[in-house]
Amino acid sequence: MFGTFIEKLRSGTYITLETTPSRSAAFAPTIDKIEALGLHTLVDGFSTTDNPLAKLKYNALFAAVALQNRFGLPVLATMSMRDRNRIALQSDLLGANEADVRAILALTGDSAHYSDQPHAKGVFEGNSKLLLDIISTFNRGVDLADQKLIVPPRPIYPFAVIDSYAKNSVALEKKMAKKVSHGAIGIISQPVYDLDNARKLLEMMERANAEHNAECTLILGFFPITKLRTARFLD
């Protein structure tokens, strides 16, 4: 499933649908709605978000398992550095691996300052590059302390994110190259609404790959604006 997805990501056309679990103990209603609308027939895979804006939601890894089991399509599960230290991150990855959740989107995470949970504190033992490093070590059959794992995980596919625009394009390109150097095989941009902007991002990715002898793919974010409220939020 993941091999085909990665091959298509690099050489074909593809689209994934982002899902945001709700503040609920049940993710099944969201899956039922996807099936009722036939959305699973229009995409190559899904993604699940991990408590965006530090708001409490259903767990992204469990949501990924449920989506994969229902539709047989790969799911890109988000993991935020905000809520876990390196022990918890590695533990979650090991459990997710046996459940065949193996495409991971590494995020630093929004500040706990925005949380709907009073007095919540962020962990922030590292940023998203630490999670990319953990995945790299797991793919070598060892943990972050360089200790051999009794049963090595199946290949994990690391993804990262990038802003779609910055006043300082040099700084943006350095961030992109940094994530490529830490092993990301795909970098998803924030929504892009301008062709020139898209071309600049693609050129940055081409240079980052050349610098690090990599094959990272730039995945352009698309966020259709259907409501005035959404436009105001983005603005």
Q: What's this, in brief?
A:
It is built from eight helices and seven strands. It has helices at 2-11, 28-37, 60-71, 86-98, 128-138, 169-181, 195-212, 228-234; strands at residues 16-19, 45-48, 75-80, 103-107, 157-162, 186-191, 217-221. Helix 4 (86-98) packs across helix 5 (128-138) and helix 6 packs across helix 7.
Secondary-structure map:
Layout: H1 2-11, E1 16-19, H2 28-37, E2 45-48, H3 60-71, E3 75-80, H4 86-98, E4 103-107, H5 128-138, E5 157-162, H6 169-181, E6 186-191, H7 195-212, E7 217-221, H8 228-234
Parallel strand pairs: 1-2, 2-3, 3-4, 4-5, 5-6, 6-7
Overall pLDDT metric = 93
What is the helix tally?
Answer: 8
Q: Main sheet?
A: 7 strands, parallel
Overall structural domain count:
1
Number of E-state strands: 7
Specify the CATH class: Alpha Beta
SSE string, helices as H and strands as E: HEHEHEHEHEHEHEH
Derived from helix and strand composition plus strand pairing, the structural class reads alpha/beta
Protein architecture, described:
With about 240 residues, this protein is an alpha/beta fold. It has one domain (about 1-235): TIM Barrel (Alpha-Beta Barrel), CATH 3.20.20.220. Helices cover about 40% and strands about 15% of the residues. The protein has eight helices and seven strands. The chain has helices at about 1-10, 30-35, 60-70, 85-100, 130-140, 170-180, 195-210, 230-235, and strands spanning about 15-20, 45-50, 75-80, 105, 155-160, 185-190, 215-220. It has a seven-stranded parallel beta sheet, with helices on both faces. β3 (about 75-80), α4 and β4 (about 105) form a beta-alpha-beta unit. α6 packs across α7 (about 195-210). About 30% of the residues are buried.
